[in-house]
Design brief:
By secondary structure, this protein is α/β, with parallel strands linked by helices. The chain is about 40% helix and about 20% strand. The protein binds adenosine monophosphate.
Length: about 280
């Protein structure tokens, strides 16, 4: 595996792989790798011959008072995991490499899809995400890029950007990888105290209950939302920020759940903000 701290090295290595006829896959991350990230690498390996992963904690997508400074980092461990799972090129730029003139002046404006859910809770977040994803796609120029359903709104926005700006890349969204007790894997789970870790199960339990109710034929959004809220409210350590049933294309709330409706939750567990979702049957 090549570890590349500069854009020039990435471009040279990708050009070399392409000369050999390789199809290029790309997995962007913020590091502190877990099995969720590694499942995206496996998906990339199935769909390409040369897998590029980036690790970049993008300051542009963090708001004031968020966890940019304490976001978990362990490059030595990440490097070993990436190499062991078949990543061919690991791009680990500094902030200066990505933003040499300081914060970029021209950015990707995400529009109305970012006014909902996490975009409403974290103003400016998706502008930062789409700007860095656009930069990374321009640097790597992959044939296919893999994103996780865990960050469902992000995946919707990236697809929309690729369509609206005619970016020549295929976007694949891979399923959520969970702990045995249901908690969605996240680099931020490391923030949870043992008691908070137990309480955090309420998110996947609530989504599982909505999924089960939908499977049993419940279609009424108000009743499905009440089912989820009851489970979250039973955990005093969990403070929901939003609990919603949304149309996967518009992200607008639905009154009747149909196949493909997304149940989505954001909640603080202690001071840690967690998100999770499920696509209803
Ligand atoms: P992050 O490092 O948190 O920015 O995540 C990088 C990529 O990994 C994003 O596309 C996420 O959606 C994806 N990802 C994060 N957690 C999971 C998970 N538990 N299962 C699958 N993909 C995930």
């Amino acid at each position: 595996m090549i570890t590349a701290p500069t854009i020039a090295t990435v471009r040279a290595a990708v050009a070399e792989a392409r000369r050999g006829g390789a199809r290029v896959g790309f997995v962007p991350t913020m590091g502190y790798l877990h099995q969720g990230h590694l499942s995206l690498v496996e998906e990339a390996r199935r769909r390409s011959d040369f897998v590029v992963m980036s690790i970049f904690v993008n300051p542009l997508q963090f708001g004031a008072g968020e966890d940019l400074d304490r976001y978990p980092r362990d490059l030595a461990r990440d490097t070993a995991l990436a190499a062991g799972h078949g990543v061919d090129l690991l791009f680990v730029p500094t902030v200066e490499e990505m933003y040499p003139t300081g914060e970029p002046v021209v950015r990707v404006v995400p529009g109305r899809l970012a006014a909902r859910l996490d975009g409403a809770a974290r103003p400016g977040h998706f502008e930062g995400v789409l700007t860095v994803v656009a930069k990374l796609l321009n640097i790597v120029q992959p044939d296919v890029a893999i994103f996780g359903q865990k960050d469902f709104q992000q995946a919707v926005l990236v697809r929309r950007m690729v369509a609206d700006l005619e970016l020549p890349v295929e976007i694949v969204v891979a399923p959520i990888v969970r702990e045995p007790d249901g908690l969605a894997l996240s680099s931020r789970n490391v923030y949870l105290s043992p008691a908070e870790r137990v309480a955090a199960r309420a998110l996947s339990r609530a989504l599982g209950a909505a999924d089960a109710a939908a499977r049993a034929g419940e279609r009424d959004a108000a009743r499905l939302l009440a089912t989820m809220r009851d489970i979250l409210d039973a955990e005093p350590a969990v403070r929901p920020q939003y609990v919603e049933l949304v149309d996967p294309a518009t992200l607008e709330p639905v009154t009747t759940a149909v196949p493909g409706t997304v149940a989505a939750i954001a909640a603080f567990v202690g001071s840690t903000r967690l998100i999770d979702n499920v696509v209803l049957p």
